[in-house]
Amino acid sequence: MIPIAKPQIGKEEINAVVKVLESGMLTQGRVTSEFEERFASFCQSKHAIMTSSGTTALHTCLNSMGINKGDEVITSAFTFVAGASTILMQGAAPVFADIRPDTFNIDPVSVEKAVTDKTRAIVPVDLYGQIYDYRQIKKLAQENNLKIVEDACQSVGAESDGKKAGTFGNVSAFSLYATKNLVSGEGGMITTDDDDAADKARRFINHGQAGRYDYVDLGYNYRATDIQAAIGLVQLKKIDMLNSRRIENAKLLSEGLDEIKGIIVPHVRRGNRHVFHQYTIKVDGYKLSRDQLLERLRDNGIGANIYYPQPLHLAHFYRRFGYKKGDFPVAEEMSKKVLSIPVHPGVDRPSIEKIIGIIKKC
Ligand SMILES: *Cc1c(COP(=O)(O)O)cnc(C)c1O
Fold first, then answer.
1. Residue 189 CA, ligand 1 centroid: distance in Å
2. What digits encode the pLDDT tens for the residues 232-278?
3. pLDDT by residue (tens digit) across 197-225?
4. How crowded is residue 349: how many other Cβ atoms within 10 Å of its Cβ?
5. Integer distance in angstroms from the first to the last C-alpha of the chain?
6. Integer Cα distance of 47 and 31 in angstroms
7. Measured from the CA of 82, which atom of ligand 1 is nearest?
8. C-alpha separations of 22 from 231, 233, 282 in Å
9. How many CB atoms lie within 10 A of CB 15?
10. N or C terminus: fewer CB in 10 A for the chain?
């Protein structure tokens, strides 16, 4: 079986974890600080703050931007649920916008339509590892006095016009979950240039403490540990190599699949470095239906998957906010056409040829 994701863990990661365990310091400490410093310098961002997950990073980002009860926050209808659920955790209302059919990222035209006098922020997502249309979103944010919280959970190392993911909003959230491009098991990272937001984030993840037992805000325990940071620190040294392998695999896949009728390969916007957290094709007018092709790949040992089979506004829990079928036609259409196939650094050339062969033959 060629799995859809496979963490690239080597001797170095294992040794780094053993070192932390032997040190007896199992919580947040020196290793986390070093990881944060190196992550900030990798992204060219002033601050980096490690958290326990991408979800807690997103929640912390929203809190740092002062998002609160009565506020509306606009986010993509076509993504993982954490963007919307963390808005609700702050007592604010998630307001969905549609996506663009070429990049699957939030559509600025749809965002503009969703702005009301209650809108306080936008949460654009770098879906599948490609940065959103930051120019248009930034323009809208400036015109309407909105904050931008970049959901960079899938895009560590991605670039747009030479700048790294995690630097296109007021604050950004990364996930270091085991399937992501850079892993720490569970884990998250916040990047920002905003000193106040960084201070607020550090308090929020640590019980609202400004100093020991000095509780100045509401806070949570969203800390990560040095065990996780030790893995992340080693992974950070390899991330350029790991991402390059994803990009190379994506190139080979696209060369092989581009000519096949009914298969639309990923579109990389000009100026973007797409880091292919997922390699996602559209199946449209192919000999088999999307679901039949998925099954065929799986029968042949290829761990293909669908991200995401349902847009958020049609999910059971989110329908209660008044959404219905037809509200975001592009997100709805994409959820029926997308198919992600293995692209991670562990996928070798014979596997790529096998994948292409199966899709060609069907
Ligand atoms: C993975 C992911 C998250 C959540 O990250 P966790 O570390 O699993 O909490 C949020 N948003 C997107 C787009 C993701 O891919």
1. 11
2. 999 999 999 999 999 999 999 999 999 999 999 999 999 999 999 99
3. 999 999 999 999 999 999 999 999 999 99
4. 10
5. 19
6. 16
7. 10
8. 15, 17, 49
9. 11
10. N
Residues 6+ apart with CB under 8 A from 152: 126, 158, 165, 166, 172, 173, 174, 191
Find the 83 Cα to ligand 1 centroid distance in Å. 8
Residue 154, SS3 per DSSP = coil
Give me 72's structure tokens. Answer: 């509306």
Using CA atoms in the order 327, 131, 51, 313, what is the torsion angle rounded to 10 degrees?
10
Determine if the pTM surpasses 0.90. yes
Asked if residues 266 and 279 have their Cβ atoms less than 8 Å apart, the reply is yes
User: 22-52: b or e for each residue (b if 16 or more CB lie within 10 Å)?
Assistant: eeeeeebeebbeebbeebbebbebebbbbbb
Q: How far is the CA of 132 from the centre of ligand 1 (A)?
A: 16
Token pair, residue 201, equals 């984030």
* Paired tokens of 236: 């950070």
The burial class, CB within 10 Å (0-12 / 13-18 / 19+), for 149 is buried
Residue 95 near residue 322 (C-beta atoms within 8 A): no
CA of 262 to the centre of ligand 1 (A): 30
